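Support reply, case 0932

Customer input (verbatim):
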Amino acid sequence: MGDRMGNKQIEGPVRKKLIFLSTGRCGTIRITQILREKLSPETFTVVHQMRFSRLANVVGNAMYYFGESPLIKRLLYSLITSRYEHGKDFISTDPLTAMIVPDQYKHSAKVLFVHITRDDISFARSMVRFTKSRFKSFIAHTFIPLWQPGVWPLETCFNKNIIDKYALVSSRKNMFFYERFGHYSNYLQIDMKTLFSTDALARIINRWFGINITITKENLKIKANESSAMVDQG
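Our regenerated output:
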């Protein structure tokens, strides 16, 4: 695990933020399910796909191409997350808001970024299968401009090399996250396989929040669609 925080504990009151950055298709739904099961809802808010996060996804990808507005990113991210925080420690695994995380978070002693990576081709194959199997995902990927950087409307239906296109999406987004946050002390990077085959998730929670939780190998092996249905908060 690319943990560059050392063993230093960050001091201060509660209301810390733990933000998982990812391309999607990296097990973030299952991470959310596990953390909701293991952490007290009186102390923690754990969210996956938040209201208006689809808008955030399009805005973030537009800024990727046409230039950023730090003010718009800050206001939109605050609008989306404020209705979930409720004065609690906040954990977001939402991949759709990852491209608009405010720049000032890079310098915050109250924010930890965990960047989940996955092999580009593995991500691409998973995303294409998912897009074909889920109606809302099919609509988004097929008809909404800038839903993914570099994948254009209707291309998923006609491009025989669409796997390669999505692999490029993975590479571009991971590079974006690393270049944006990877040079700061509140960033760590971990591969999806490591996250789901070791006690890395429990160690992250312990290091950041000072709480011991037990996450078994059986917990990690369960697929999100095999567990009880998850309803996003709010």
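We compared this against your earlier run and they match. Two observations from our side: The two ends are 32 Å apart (CA to CA). The first strand starts at residue 2 and ends at 3. Please reopen the case if you see a mismatch on your end.
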